[in-house]
Write a structure and sequence with these properties.
mainly alpha; 60% helix; 217 residues; Endonuclease III, domain 1; Endonuclease Iii, domain 2
Amino acid sequence: MTKKERVRLVLAALDERYPFDENGCYLNYTQPHELLIATILSAQCTDERVNIVTADLFTNYPDLAAFAAADIAEMEAAVKSTGFYRNKAKNIIAAAQILLTEHGGEMPSDIDVLTKLPGVGRKTANVVRGHIYKLPGIVVDTHVMRLSRRWGFTKNSDPVKIEHDLMKLLPKRDWIRYNTQAIAFGREICKAPKARCADCFMADFCPSCIASQQQKE
């Protein structure tokens, strides 16, 4: 089986198991800047924890101006449970200030502009572009990294290199949905550190599952 043939099988299986909702997002938000902030907070933190934190955060800071004027100590306390809270608090306030002063309070759509914001890497930028502007981009989080390697789509461990490998391999129409479906599959079956290969509906064509079965034999 070629890599392209495996890609078609994987994408078809993901579509069947996890129908894609283009408006679906694991992070709760109502305004573009809230998605940006929630994604910044999601670094090294679960979406569930972020959603708990932002439920109060977005109430206490109802708009971009409130975030830009926030007290750093109060912001640190508000986001502490997400981890790395000092950097996250500093970046959130700084990003809000830049959005107000340099972008008129509007969220940029250009990835190079977004990644100049404090605390915003390509992952965060692609989340914003995909959900706010429906622009194709591949979000490389821990699930995408793990599954793309297990499926044999990449041998790299660097997120940027993985992103570019996947951009060459996956049809552009699947770039946004790939992350959402990979998260669902990673949480249900292909977990870290041990995948549930015995329960996997991709076992017949997944290199990792096949190798695991051969080792048992």
